[in-house]
Specification:
Helix content is 35%, strand content 16%. It is an alpha/beta fold. The protein has two domains: 202 residues, Rossmann fold, CATH 3.40.50.1100; 94 residues, 3-Layer(aba) Sandwich (Rossmann fold), CATH 3.40.50.1100. Bound molecules: pyridoxal-5'-phosphate.
Length: 329
């Protein structure tokens, strides 16, 4: 028995289909209690503020967010007894708003980008005495991924070498924290960021509009450790959405655009690694869903040869959070 919902944070690492001669596995972050990767930094930022004496029950938290951090913080606030105001661009999906409201959060919708939401949260902090946790520069954000997401991945690969981490970048917390952990365990691992092709600031482009929720903030987040990055890939919303539909229909995995986009880029890297290393296209087994749920003993699965390049990616949240966007129609 868990003594509280927040103790259930964590997620499985699941193999998905990949180019011949490679293996890709994704962290299924929708399995966290608030349904996304952001439960991890939400809890870490609150606990760090409590430890520093900046936050005690009864205080009101304020946070600008495009959604998942707001939901994660709403879960943490509800479970720990804080009030919370979430400032959010009105363009983000209504499912996100409804979820935060269900957890008892107050919402302030603004016309504009995440940067405008940040300006408004700064005002509320200065004028109303609310406490902002600052996911873009709070070190507890990447630290949460270093201590949980990254640690879990190293344990979940059962000793197989990891060749690359390919992940979208919002605050940079996930790629920086997980990347640091993976580099310690596998010094040669490549760390590849993913950003929207119409908002490719890290690739040297101008900030622009995009329809991704959660990745591509339009500026370089202070929480992004750029020195860790080997490379940055750009993806279009069209190819990311097509990948989401394929994943749902062919693999039974429901995710949103930034997860689809991360997988598009992960496949490029996996294909490159398989070619560079001339891996036999038949050498690496695909996903195996022969579970044997009614059997007493676990069903044997074909082992993954050490020669197969292994690429890790992150599926941030569930596709259920994107139904109103028409993504699956
Ligand atoms: C849907 C989605 N994709 C990608 C990201 C990127 O994560 P990070 O902020 O850790 O860079 C997030 C973070 O909120 C997200 O919610």
């Amino acid at each position: 028995m868990n003594r509280g919902i927040l103790g259930t944070i964590g997620s499985p690492l699941v193999q998905v289909s990949s180019p011949p001669g490679s293996v890709i596995a994704a962290k299924i972050e929708s399995k966290n209690p608030g349904g996304s990767a952001k439960d991890r930094p939400a809890l870490a930022m609150v606990e760090a503020a409590e430890k520093a004496g900046k936050l005690s029950p009864g205080d009101r938290i304020v946070e600008p967010t495009s959604g998942n951090t707001g939901i994660g913080l709403s879960v943490v606030a509800a479970a720990k007894g804080y009030d919370i105001t979430v400032v959010m661009p009105a363009s983000k999906s209504p499912e996100r708003r409804q979820l935060m409201a269900a957890y008892g959060a107050d919402l302030e919708l603004i016309d504009g980008t995440i940067s405008d939401a940040k300006d408004r949260a700064d005002e509320l902090e200065a004028e109303e005495g609310m406490i902002q946790l600052g996911q873009f520069d709070n070190p507890a954000n990447p630290e949460a991924h270093y201590r949980t997401t990254g640690k879990e991945i190293v344990e979940q690969v059962d000793g197989h070498r990891i060749d690359a981490l390919v992940a979208g970048i919002g605050t940079g917390g996930t790629i920086s924290g997980v990347g640091r952990r993976l580099k310690e365990a596998f010094p040669d691992v490549s760390i590849v960021g993913v950003e929207p092709e119409t908002n490719a600031v890290l690739s040297g482009g101008e900030p622009g509009d995009d329809e991704f929720q959660g990745m591509g903030p339009g500026f370089v987040s202070p929480n992004l450790d750029r020195d860790l990055l080997t490379d940055v890939e750009t993806v279009s919303i069209g190819e990311a959405e097509a990948e989401c539909r394929r994943l749902a229909r062919e693999e039974g995995i429901l995710v949103g655009q930034s997860s689809g986009g991360s997988l598009v880029a992960a496949k490029r890297i996996a294909r490159r690694l398989a070619e560079e290393r001339s891996i036999d296209p038949k050498a690496c087994p695909g996903p195996d869903n022969n579970v044997g749920i009614l059997e007493d003993e676990p069903v044997d699965t074909e082992p993954i040869p050490e020669s197969c390049p292994l690429v890790i990616t992150v599926f941030w949240d569930s596709g259920e959070r994107y139904m109103s966007t028409g993504l699956f129609e």
